[in-house]
Amino acid sequence: MRGFILAAGFGTRLKPITDKVPKALVPVYGEPLLAHNLRILHKSGVFSAIGVNSHYLHEQMERFQKGSSIPFELFYEAGEIRGTGGALYFARNFLAADDAFLIANVDILHKFDIAELSTRFMREGRICSLVSIPVESGGTIFYDNSSGDFSGTASDYGGAGRGQNILGAEFTGVAFYRREFLDFVNDDDFSIIPIWRRAAAAGRAPGIIIPEKSDSWWMDIGTHEALAKIQADVNDGVVDLWN
Description:
- It is a single chain.
- The chain is of the alpha/beta class.
- It has one domain (about 1-235): Spore Coat Polysaccharide Biosynthesis Protein SpsA, Chain A, CATH 3.90.550.
- It is about 30% helix and about 25% strand.
- It is built from 8 helices and 13 strands.
- The chain has helices at about 35-45, 60-65, 85-90, 90-95, 115-125, 155, 195-200, 225-235, and strands spanning about 1-5, 25-30, 30, 50-55, 75, 100-105, 110, 130-135, 140-145, 150-155, 165-180, 205-210, 215-220.
- Strands 1, 4, 5, 6, 8, 9, 10, 11 and 12 form a 9-stranded mixed β-sheet that branches.
């Protein structure tokens, strides 16, 4: 399995820090976000290789790569930034080198059992599984409780009745894909959501995979408030970023 970290974004929510530092290199408790993410993937023992995409302030990403204790391939996206869809397209040869791959957002920190989740994903046979946390109301994505199939996003269900069998979840920014998923990726894709829909229309609906361990946690570190909270949580012993 290949691992791939999405790290090309501008990090506008973290300005003015990101005026001079790419989002991936914003420090969290003394280490860049990217270093934390690389360690998470590397520790799982699942990945034959790890890739990272880059766009904004690419030279800093190159310097980080040279000094990283965990090796990774760096994919520079020149021109206009292209979102998750574009990242998958540009790195398709790297991702297709194994039978499956994981995609993770660099501004998400988490403690998921990646090895256990990857085993479940391969066993279940879906083309794509989105690591998600069910919520009682709202959610960023929605799924069919009977089949586990992805059924839409918040824009599809905002203000409308979801129906008894449609449940909401928070997508954590971590997802598993089989190599065949790349067949649904076009050269002009930007968002990943239309690609999920394309796969579903072809009878290969993405599914939801829910972490089982009670000590699992995740946090979006894309805002100043979140940066302050993760620092406080580490100080208070609520989370451990290294074990």
